[in-house]
Amino acid sequence: PFQEEMLKNQYAHAQQNENETRSYEDWKSNTGVPAFFRGHPFQQWPADFNQRAYTPQQVQMLDDMMNYLRGSK
User: Fold this and answer.
1) How far apart are CA 55 and CA 6, in angstroms?
2) Which of 8, 34, 53, 71 is the least buried, fewest Cβ under 10 Å from its Cβ?
3) Mean per-residue pLDDT over the chain, rounded
4) Do residues 11 and 20 touch, judged by C-beta distance below 8 A?
5) By three-state DSSP, how is residue 5 classified?
6) 28-42: pLDDT as tens digits
7) How many CA within 13 A on the CB side of residue 42?
8) First-to-last CA distance in the chain?
């Protein structure tokens, strides 16, 4: 639930500051969720945000994914 709230806040920001006109559901599926997916693995957002945005289990899964993609695991 806290991540859904973060997405809604990001959507509101995009509407107010980036001329976002798509519905929330369209924005969420095409922009919001993909950005959340990239956020930690590619350090798209500041570390303090990432620490609040993901559960420890999600961080572990994303780290495992990146290690796999790098051939580290």
Assistant:
1) 13
2) 71
3) 93
4) yes
5) helix
6) 999 999 999 999 999
7) 7
8) 31
